[in-house]
Write a structure and sequence with these properties.
This protein has about 400 residues and is of the alpha/beta class. It is built from 17 helices and twelve strands.
Length: about 400
């Protein structure tokens, strides 16, 4: 419920709102009920309710700012770096997994806190997670495709060298779209593909909204400073998917016991969400015009360096996790990629875009099924000659 409700009330009373077909019957019943109510009383009640929720949001924001939580996880060793891009090595002798986050949020969402770290969970399960941190863009003319063909391919090469053979890719959100392209560019270096809430068919579910976003591209690019689209503009695009999200989440937080672990988890997620990353103008142009506007990936028309990015040509184990309640990447947009990859496994855990990965139920609903799938589908790494020699040597005796 928002100020939009006040504006939509006259249309709803007349049955003129364009309802989703699945809600059309309920919309008709609502219009009948509204027609019998007093317009003045309805407007007054809505305004009072909205004011109450705004006050709750203000209390929640104040509680968030006063909360003592601060992320204090130390960064693991850096395996490789190129400009602002780094690959963190979370250790382990098991199958290696190159984790690729989105370009528009900090990658530590996959290593959020001691309680909510997918990569540290996977390391404890016997895998070797290698997490990419994109840093801030240093080249406004570097498109997403250019970044994939350059730095991402080099990060993969270094990961393969460290692992002694092909590695699995795990991509989250836009990072999954990039991981799919990377697998198409270097299939011999990729052992498996894991896709979390990954958009592919950008016109599925709400094509007009995607095209409207593409029409905003000129204004968004005009706002670029030194060739970089500011974080605030990107946040506006995110909020457009769910305008009431800020009110809802902070109103709920206001009612939480601030001493509970759940309150600290909320702050951890909010700190990450507010720690945004600007986007190079060339990358923004490709995302908005080629993906949202022209839907090149789903049409099989996305090419990088002459290579067609065609998931239907991939021949590798693949798992796609599509959260049921995702508003940023609609389930239809992500499920399309799972349907395009031959033999891909599709799971639909409950939750939203971020909650699926770091929510209270994420370990049970995503992390554990993911680890089990990987144990089944990822080959064990071949021991290096040095490690093999150590295994052959008899253990030294210890006398006391």
């Amino acid at each position: 419920m928002s100020t939009l409700s006040l504006g939509a009330l006259p249309l709803a009373r007349q049955g003129l709102l364009p309802w989703n077909p699945r809600l059309a019957r309920r919309g008709a019943l609502l219009a009948e009920a509204l027609a019998e109510a007093s317009p003045a009383a309805l407007s007054e009640a809505l305004a009072a309710l909205w004011a109450e929720r705004l006050q709750a949001m203000d209390r929640g924001i104040a509680a968030y700012r006063a909360h003592p939580y601060c992320r204090d996880l130390a960064d693991p060793p850096i395996l490789w770096a190129d400009g602002p891009v780094r690959v963190f090595d979370h250790g382990g002798l098991g199958p290696a997994l190159l984790c690729i986050p989105s370009l528009v949020n900090r990658g530590y969402v996959l290593d959020l806190s001691a309680r909510r770290s997918l990569v540290r969970f996977l390391a404890a399960q016997g895998f070797r997670p290698l997490l990419i941190d994109w840093g801030d863009p240093d080249d406004p003319d570097l498109s997403v495709s250019g970044l994939i063909a350059g730095r991402l391919v080099r990060a993969l090469d270094r990961s393969v060298a460290a692992a002694g053979g092909p590695v699995a890719l795990l991509g989250y959100c836009m990072g999954g779209t990039m991981a799919t392209a990377l697998a198409a560019l270097a299939p011999e270096k990729v052992s498996a593909l894991v896709l979390l809430a990954t958009p592919w068919d950008f016109h599925a579910g709400r094509p007009e909204a995607a095209k409207a976003l593409a029409r905003l591209a000129p204004r968004l690019l005009d706002a670029a400073t030194d060739g970089v689209v500011p974080v605030d503009w990107l946040q506006i695009l995110f909020l457009a998917n769910d305008p009431d999200l800020t009110v809802r989440k902070y109103a709920l937080f206001a009612g939480l016991d601030q001493s509970l672990a759940g309150a600290a988890d909320f702050v951890a997620v909010e700190d990450w969400a507010n720690d945004g990353v600007p986007l190079a103008a060339a990358a923004a142009r490709e995302c908005l015009l080629d993906w949202y506007g022209e839907n090149l990936p789903a049409r099989g028309a996305w090419r990088i360096g002459g290579t067609a990015i065609r998931p239907d040509r991939l021949r590798l184990p693949a798992l796609a996790a599509v959260p049921r309640d995702d508003r940023l990447v609609l389930p239809e947009q992500a499920a399309a990629l799972a349907g395009a990859i031959p033999g891909a496994t599709l799971i639909r855990p409950p939750g939203a875009h971020v909650g699926m990965v770091v929510g209270a139920e994420a370990p049970e609903l995503l992390w554990q099924p993911l680890a089990q799938w990987m144990k089944t589908h990822l080959p064990a790494p071949k021991p290096s000659p040095r490690r093999a020699l150590r295994k052959l040597r008899p253990a030294a005796s210890v006398s006391g």
